[in-house]
Design a protein that fits this description.
Elements: E1 2-9, H1 16-25, E2 38-48, E3 51-60, H2 70-74, E4 77-85, H3 89-93, H4 95-105, E5 112-118, H5 130-139, E6 147-148, H6 157-172, E7 173-175, E8 182-184
Parallel strand pairs: 1-3, 1-4, 4-5, 5-6
Antiparallel strand pairs: 2-3, 7-8
This protein binds guanosine-5'-diphosphate (GDP) and magnesium ion.
């Protein structure tokens, strides 16, 4: 099965662990435990009638004291969600540090990046509006427009992961013209039916 590593980057308390918990286990907690070091989850996503891919979702304890772990955390990642909290301006400013850390450690242009706004259920506390996030996402070469989510209500959470998967497929995979199997662009023939690219 094709496997891809996805990382989540963003300030502590931005909602990384909550986004993953909503997506993978369909739960939400107001008192999410702090992530210690690095945690990780797997999920299968069906990409056509008879093909799944597996995404490995890595969650970083977004605390300065864990930044030493960052190089091994991002190593091999195909995609990154970069999170800001729509109710917290500092979290948006902090994005530049996370982008910098990613750039230092992996091939930035060859990585799918999507900006994720979190906590939109707290509409009365919102301080970051979408046009500003769109500007920033362009500045950092993100693949598509920011997606605003709520891990609490579940709004746009699944959509965000599906969109990310879609972008990974576009960047990394080819669909066989003959049998519709997806396979890595590194291959010059379909591993299932042998069709030459
Ligand atoms: N209202 C609301 N609170 C959220 C949401 N996502 C996360 N939180 C809360 O924000 C806090 C930090 O979340 P957490 O997932 O631990 O952030 P992390 O440090 O980035 O992993 C917790 O108290 C969560 O319950 C959301 O979508 N809506
Ligand atoms: Mg966490």
């Amino acid at each position: 099965m094709l496997k891809f590593k996805i990382i989540l980057a963003g300030a502590k308390d931005v909602g990384k662990s909550s986004l993953i918990a909503r997506y993978c286990d369909n739960v939400f907690s107001e008192s999410m435990h702090d992530t210690i070091g690095v945690a990780f989850k797997r999920k299968k996503i069906q990409i056509n009638e008879n093909q799944d891919i597996e995404i490995n979702i890595w969650d970083f304890g977004g605390d300065l004291k864990y930044r030493l772990l960052f190089p091994s955390y991002v190593n091999g990642a195909s995609a990154a969600f970069i999170l800001y909290d729509t109710t917290n301006r500092e979290s948006l400013d902090d994005i530049k540090n996370w982008v910098q850390l990613i750039r230092e450690n992996i091939n930035y242009d060859n990585t799918v990046k999507i900006l994720i706004g979190t906590k939109i259920d707290l509409e009365d506390q919102r301080v970051i509006h979408k046009p500003e996030a769109i500007e920033i996402s362009k500045q950092y070469g993100c693949s598509i427009e920011p997606i605003e989510t709520s891990a609490k209500t579940g709004e746009n959470v699944e959509e965000a992961f599906i969109a990310l998967t879609h972008e990974i497929i576009k960047m990394r995979l080819r669909e066989c013209k003959s049998c519709s199997e997806y396979f890595t662009k590194k291959l010059k023939f379909c591993p299932k039916c042998g069709e030459i690219v």
